[in-house]
Specification:
By secondary structure, the chain is an alpha+beta fold. It has one domain: Porin (Beta Barrel). The chain has three helices and eight strands, in the order ααββββββββα. Strand 4 and strand 5 form a beta hairpin. The longest helix is centred in the N-terminal third of the chain and has 30 residues. The N and C termini lie far apart (77 Å).
């Protein structure tokens, strides 16, 4: 099988996975959401008061078929308990190694990737303590190999990650959830011979700062006054 055929089959596989994801997203949205005007809905949400929110995500994914974990810290503003916009920081401390030759010596080093993201999340379904969420994020950062305290083969990367999540509110201040998505590399590091295109399985914990503020801080201020 020649190189052109391999590349064609590889991208055809990606397109197939994206079709499945889009079908899943469309079906879930149609089942759980009501038919509304998206423009009017967004205007209504963004004209509502906003509150600070923050969360920690653990994403399980793959690099060239080997499992990895992506840790994420995110913070932003949530409007009308329905739309969140914010910034995140993500890092991959993979146990995957890449062989290379540097200065005439053959060696092997672990793969790393750190990136910042702009993200948005839309709550398309809400019932009792359950919520259905569509998170989308666009990230930019760097991938590299870690050689002792040095970074080698470091280059910029850009990626796009659409996903869908289900979340359950366990207490007035904590919600836990899980989801599924896909990582699409808009710009890859050609010096690292690994495949970063992969499904993403998300486990998330969200601290409900707005609930803490309204239930405890405001109540304490009212009692003090």
């Amino acid at each position: 099988m020649n190189t052109v055929t391999k590349k064609y089959l590889y991208f055809d596989k990606i397109r197939g996975l994206l079709r499945i994801f889009c079908l899943l997203l469309f079906t879930t949205t149609k089942v759980f959401s009501q038919t509304v005007s998206l423009t009017d809905s967004l205007k209504k949400h963004f004209h509502s008061p906003s509150n600070f929110t923050g969360k920690w995500d653990t994403q399980n994914s793959f690099i060239t078929g080997k499992s990895i974990q992506i840790q994420s810290l995110k913070m932003g503003l949530i409007f009308n308990q329905s739309i969140t916009v914010g910034l995140g920081f993500h890092w991959i401390n993979s146990k995957n190694f890449q062989d290379y030759v540097l200065d005439g010596f053959k060696d092997s080093s672990p793969i790393r990737m750190h990136y910042f993201s702009i993200f948005t999340e839309y709550v398309f379904f809400k019932r009792n303590n359950w919520m259905g969420i569509i998170p989308v994020q666009l990230g930019i950062g760097k991938s590299f190999l870690r050689k002792g305290e040095d970074r080698i083969f470091e280059r910029m990367v850009c990626l796009y990650e659409p996903s869908i999540s289900i979340e359950y509110k366990f207490s007035p201040w904590l919600a836990l959830g899980a989801g599924y998505g896909y990582r699409i590399m808009l710009k890859n590091n050609r010096l690292i011979d690994q495949n970063f295109y992969a499904p993403i399985y998300v486990f998330r914990a969200r601290i409900l700062f707005d609930e803490i503020y309204s239930r405890y801080i405001l109540a304490w201020r009212e009692q003090r006054d």
